[in-house]
């Protein structure tokens, strides 16, 4: 630890307190094993980056082909197309080609044929993109999400730079992994790009934050690490938006049975100045 904080001091020219090890309990319970890299497949390759949070995290998988899934609060969806299909049906009530069944399956409540949203085999008009005119809403939603740019972090300041170091030193990055690299993509400029989503896209037991909802192999106590890119521009935090206070969002990570407990203990042991820098760093994302 002395070694680590000496490095930190040199880098920032500021006095830093000695941080306890990010997650000693987790490392012990994980038997010292580091997380394996996973073969590149869908959106991006690695789940971990050699950190030792290790065996507690687990990935959600697709039952049909056994590959990792990463979209949604419980990492329950395989692709943006499936995500759009699920949301259009479950949140908006519009049946579609990916999710063709009405949520209410009472035959007395089926008033029209399904799917309501579908491929337009004879589109009325073709605008700028004939493909969009032929495609279902769900396909167009997926294209919109796929081609939306990531948020741009604010320029670093001395405070946010130190906050980023604190974030890494106390173990936030064990779940909110900073860098991920895309696999090969058919979309221009999206192949083998290293980007900063601040998530491992894996599931973690989060104690009383759990919502009791189980999806796929995610239990009611588990959530996918929320990607933190753009978090400085969000108003409500956590899966149910229960707080608009970043400090509360961090403290709520800690409760009986949460994998984040040791990290939140380290957060609470920080000096107020380092806590403030960490918050400033999150606000800058
Ligand atoms: C054991 C894994 C784990 C660790 C360690 C962890 N987090 Fe999280 N974090 C999560 C999960 C899972 C969620 C989503 C929880 C939810 O939505 O209820 C989350 C959500 C958040 C959110 C809310 C994001 C949003 O958009 O709603 C913030 C902010 C956050 N974490 C910051 C931190 C910080 C700062 C640290 C270090 C002090 C940290 N986290 C450590 C797993 C972790």
Features:
285 residues; mainly alpha; Cytochrome Bc1 Complex, Chain D, domain 2; two-stranded antiparallel ribbon; disordered N terminus; binds heme C
Q: Would you write up a description of this structure?
A:
- There is one protein chain.
- The two termini are 28 Å apart.
- The chain contains nine helices and six strands.
- Helix 3 (80-90) crosses helix 5 and helix 6 (158-170) packs across helix 9.
- Helix content is 29%, strand content 5%.
- The chain has a single domain (2-77, 152-284), classed as Cytochrome Bc1 Complex, Chain D, domain 2 (Orthogonal Bundle), CATH 1.10.760.
- The strands form three sheets. The chain has a two-stranded antiparallel ribbon. Strands 3-4 form a two-stranded antiparallel ribbon.
- The model is unreliable at 1-55 (pLDDT under 50).
- The chain is globular and about 65 Å long.
- By secondary structure, it is mainly alpha-helical.
- Strand 1 (60-61) and strand 2 (68-69) form a beta hairpin.
Q: Give the number of helices.
A: 9
Bound molecules: heme C
CATH topology: Cytochrome Bc1 Complex, Chain D, domain 2
Order of helices and strands: HHEEHHHHEEEEHHH
The CATH class turns out to be Mainly Alpha
Let me know the number of strands.
Answer: 6
Q: Taking all residues together, what is the mean pLDDT?
A: 81
Shape: globular
For the largest beta-sheet, the strand count, sense and barrel status come to: 2 strands, antiparallel
| Strand portion | under 5%
């Amino acid at each position: 630890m002395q070694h680590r904080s000496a490095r930190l001091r040199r880098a920032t020219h500021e006095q830093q307190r000695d941080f306890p090890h990010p997650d000693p309990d987790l490392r012990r319970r994980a038997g010292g094993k580091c997380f394996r890299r996973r073969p590149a497949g869908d959106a991006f390759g690695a789940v971990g980056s050699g950190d030792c949070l290790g065996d507690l995290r687990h990935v959600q998988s697709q039952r049909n082909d056994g590959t990792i899934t990463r979209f949604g609060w419980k990492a329950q969806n395989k692709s943006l197309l499936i995500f759009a299909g699920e949301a259009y049906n479950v949140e908006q009530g519009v049946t579609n080609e990916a999710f063709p069944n009405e949520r209410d399956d009472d035959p007395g409540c089926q008033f029209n044929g399904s799917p309501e949203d579908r491929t337009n085999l004879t589109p009325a008009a073709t605008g700028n993109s004939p493909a969009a005119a032929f495609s279902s809403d769900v396909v167009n939603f997926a294209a919109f999400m796929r081609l939306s740019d990531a948020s741009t972090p604010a320029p670093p300041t001395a405070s946010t730079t130190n906050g980023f170091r604190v974030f890494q030193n106390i173990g936030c990055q064990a779940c909110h992994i900073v860098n991920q690299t895309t696999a090969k993509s058919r979309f221009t400029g999206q192949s083998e790009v290293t980007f900063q989503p601040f998530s491992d896209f894996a599931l973690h037991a989060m104690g009383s934050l759990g919502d009791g909802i189980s999806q796929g192999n995610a239990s009611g106590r588990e959530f996918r690490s929320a990607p933190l890119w753009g978090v400085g521009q969000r108003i409500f935090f956590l899966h149910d938006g229960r707080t608009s206070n970043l400090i509360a969002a961090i403290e709520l990570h800690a409760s009986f049975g949460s994998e984040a407990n040791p990290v939140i203990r380290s957060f609470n042991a920080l000096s107020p100045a380092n806590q403030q820098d960490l918050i400033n760093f999150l606000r800058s994302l």
